[in-house]
Amino acid sequence: MARLTESMTNVLEGDSMDQDVESPVAIHQPKLPKQARDDLPRHISRDRTKRKIQRYVRKDGKCNVHHGNVRETYRYLTDIFTTLVDLKWRFNLLIFVMVYTVTWLFFGMIWWLIAYIRGDMDHIEDSSWTPCVTNLNGFVSAFLFSIETETTIGYGYRVITDKCPEGIILLLIQSVLGSIVNAFMVGCMFVKISQPKKRAETLVFSTHAVISMRDGKLCLMFRVGDLRNSHIVEASIRAKLIKSKQTSEGEFIPLNQTDINVGYYTGDDRLFLVSPLIISHEINQQSPFWEISKAQLPKEELEIVVILEGMVEATGMTCQARSSYITSEILWGYRFTPVLTLEDGFYEVDYNSFHETYETSTPSLSAKELAELASRAELPLSWSVSSKLNQHAELETEQEDKSPEEQAERNGDVANLEDESKV
Length: 423
Prior knowledge:
It is a single chain. This protein is of the alpha+beta class. 38% of the residues lie in helices and 20% in strands. Helix 4 (80-86) packs across helix 7 (165-193) and helix 5 (89-118) packs across helix 6. Residues 57-196 form the Potassium channel inwardly rectifying transmembrane domain. Keywords: Ion channel, Ion transport, Membrane, Phosphoprotein, Potassium, Potassium transport, Transmembrane, Transmembrane helix, Transport, Voltage-gated channel. Its main location: membrane.
């Protein structure tokens, strides 16, 4: 029995030692922020399921970014004017009414206290008594006098007398402070009313971007237009590619921004936006789409943000309109339908066809692959590479099908022509 117990103990100790040796080391993964966990690249993410592409900028131009855990809220109060302008209309109107009401009540209370301390309330019916403010017999009348003073109405029924120096000082303070409040609140309302955000709603972008051949080169294109007759002065367009990337050192950069050239060096990014224009980006070696083909495009998780800026002709204020395109909104092998027609003495724009596209013959290879094929075959990119390869194959087949007699006869004719040329 003792031996059995000793043997069982040895077995258990051996198993425990094996478990200690073979057990893996517990590695504690570092805690990452929620955004970093959600935006991990696919090859290092545990969840390899297909995720829906989250927009960085919505189609209406609003940025889909929320600021959380902002502890230094006092910074909003240091720029109170911009904070009030950025508020929604219902909060702005509420603050507008509350500021005036509070100032009227505050100075009305002070006017009532002056009258109460001086004893004016006890000598209301005494005609020989000179009050601070005539016909002020309670808080309501003091409140009405405060409104008349700050708004400079002056009905003439309640008047301050020269026997009240404290009332004269209070009158000066309320007049100056009332002017400051008026300038601040009216200026805030004027800036909010004249904001060019509504003007940006009449600047439209096409619902889709297209990729097709233009002048023998593969190009990414989208269309912009202005619905108003008053034009945007000094209009300019720019585009950004929003795509997460991982550096060679292993650093993951979520929502990395890359410039997309839409004519910066040639001046094509400066627009005369009288009629709808098609903005073109040439896919070359400097383009982020250089190695993307038609089959690879739907697999990419990217977003193209386009920004149109300019000054409003009527007000001179800067206006900015934004939109974006995700991979499902980029059509490969399409072009935009023309919208400009020549009428009797003028040009007419048909905005019913503004978003319409039509399919066109476009190679499905990437711009890099097309350039390599063109350099090998010495063919311009405007030709269809596949069709040219088919033509070469047909020519080789025809030459193989010819009989040896025809080849000899043709060679003999060529020899005779050479003899004649020598003679």
